Prior knowledge:
It is an enzyme of class 3 (hydrolase). Pfam families: A_deaminase (PF00962). The protein is of the alpha/beta class. The chain has one domain (5-81, 175-358): Alpha-Beta Barrel (TIM Barrel). It has 15 helices and twelve strands. The protein has helices at residues 29-39, 48-59, 64-68, 71-76, 81-97, 119-139, 159-168, 192-200, 215-223, 256-263, 272-277, 293-298, 317-328, 332-345, 350-367; strands spanning 5-6, 9-10, 16-22, 100-107, 145-153, 174-180, 206-209, 229-232, 240-245, 250-254, 267-270, 303-305. The longest helix is centred in the middle third of the chain and has 21 residues, at 119-139.
Amino acid sequence: MSRYEVDGVDIQTLPKVSLHDHLDGGLRPQTILELGEEIGLELPADDAESLRAWFAAQSDSGSLPEYLKTFDLTTAVMQTEHGLRRVAKEFVLDLAEDGVVYGEIRWAPEQHLQRGLTLDQAVEAVQAGIEEAIGLVASHGGRIRVGQLVSAMRHLDRADEIAQLALRHRHAGAVGFDIAGPEDGFPASRLQSAFDTLAKAHFPATVHAGEGAGIDSIADALFSGRALRLGHGTRIAEDIVVEEETDDAIVVRLGEIAEWVKDRQIALEVSPSSNLQTGTIAQWGSALTDHPIDLLHQLGFCVTVNPDNRLQSGTTLTRELGLLVDAFDWSLDDLEQVTQNAAASAFCSFEDYEQLADEIADGYDAAR
Length: 368
């Protein structure tokens, strides 16, 4: 039993949907040690708990660029078919253990070619690990569905190639496209031709925006990237003015971008702990209670809750939901709403969505 509860229910037992979860941010420390030894990688610790602590300390920087430096270590052990397959397999098994019934794994294949893999071989290795894990979960009476979000690094120059890669694998595990990496100074418009290619092929995209940069970045993600979801999207709150607040009500005025995102129900892939670590919410405060996620949720935005990088943040989706229960007194109904938001925003078929929505509703009804 986890230590996170809502209305007397163990949150770990509830069905969950994880939309924003980085493959190179979800490694087990012991796996890093073992894969690192195989390739002679120098590590900052020689046991799993010490390595876990090192990642937590390095990640709590208040800066997105500094936070991103920890990935140099994780990607180093993900440069072979064996390494990628093992990491993907364990990633999915850990999701299932946490109660996730649908997950999308985002990662950038272009970062995993240092030991001779091609882009296609890298994607195939990850898919093999995913499928192996799905089979293991099923053999123990469980069920999980998982897709790949193929990401391009926004500050590099391979987006057109990565878009074509995603399209080649759209019927073999790839469910969507993303751009990742340093957001500020690298807008989605820089990769316009890749997004044009994807739009013409009717392939969905989510775009990191509203994390390391503000409203202009979000607007560009929506226009240039045709984003169906916003990776984090937290700084959409910059486009909301609170005009009056009492114990019983809050009166706000939405700017044009915030209004568009709310009215179109464009999903916000919010990652609370990560947002604290990277300074995303610095303008509102430094504690979880300062995070605008509760305001966005109460206003009816399509808020989803995600772990982002489970290793760097020392977290799980269960923990993220539990933290919100503690910080904002969210109820079982609140958790079900954000979970159904995630299901409705998943890059899957409508038929799969209907099954997923029913599975979530059944799980919550049973918990009640």
